[in-house]
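Whiteboard transcription, Tuesday session. T.W. wrote the structure tokens on the left side:
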């Protein structure tokens, strides 16, 4: 399938989303992989994981990059050799990347009731404004909070960071599309702009939450 959606966040930031409908063989025929990447692909046990992995390579090709230009640091954080930042996410039949000149992270999650069962594992500060129930609104808000924390963790990527204790997402409304969050870890305090939106598949009734976060720079 062609590119599912492009979101131009600003002059320096772009999100690309791929809906994974191709077979593994189709994707393999459309990408050129370096040896290290091919070995990593071969080691994946799940074909869905392999297809998502290759879909990311399709996305970076859409942006004019190649697999040879994409690297991972010792913590698994992706980066390019150039000045652009990249963050990657995939969930079920979607893969997405964000490329920016700013420090940025992205996450995408399927909205589902399951998140209610683990809410106490990643919320604490947020309990001051959340109204726990089994409503659709509560599920949507929990999914935004989880994805915001995941996106921020991808930016900082430091051992010991707890979603529950160290990343705080400010109160927000589903009628809006952004909020603020902060990381409080050891002596470090960092603030973030958080943006969120829903993504709906053309091939199912599933609804996904897409969240991306920018680290605020101290002036």
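and on the right, the sequence the group agreed on:
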């Amino acid at each position: 399938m062609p590119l599912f959606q492009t979101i131009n966040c600003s002059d320096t930031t772009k999100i690309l989303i791929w809906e994974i409908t191709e077979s593994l063989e189709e994707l393999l025929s459309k990408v050129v992989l370096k040896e290290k990447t091919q070995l990593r692909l071969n080691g994946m046990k799940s074909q869905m994981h392999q297809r998502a992995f290759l879909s990311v390579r399709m996305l970076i090709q859409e942006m004019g990059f190649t697999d040879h230009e994409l690297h991972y640091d010792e913590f698994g954080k992706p980066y390019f050799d150039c000045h652009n930042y990249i963050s990657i996410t995939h969930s079920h039949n979607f893969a997405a990347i964000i490329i920016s000149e700013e420090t940025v992270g992205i996450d995408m999650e399927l909205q589902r009731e399951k998140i209610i069962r683990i809410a106490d594992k990643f919320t604490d500060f947020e309990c001051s404004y959340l109204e726990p129930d089994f409503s659709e609104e509560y599920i949507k808000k929990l999914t935004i909070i989880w994805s915001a924390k995941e996106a921020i963790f991808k930016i900082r990527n430091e051992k010991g960071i707890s979603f529950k204790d160290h990343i705080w997402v400010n109160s927000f409304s589903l009628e809006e599309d952004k909020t603020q969050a902060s990381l409080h870890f050891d002596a470090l305090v960092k603030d973030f702009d958080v943006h969120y939106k829903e993504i709906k598949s053309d091939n199912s009734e599933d609804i996904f939450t897409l969240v991306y976060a920018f680290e605020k720079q101290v002036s």
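Someone added at the bottom: The chain has a mean pLDDT of 95.
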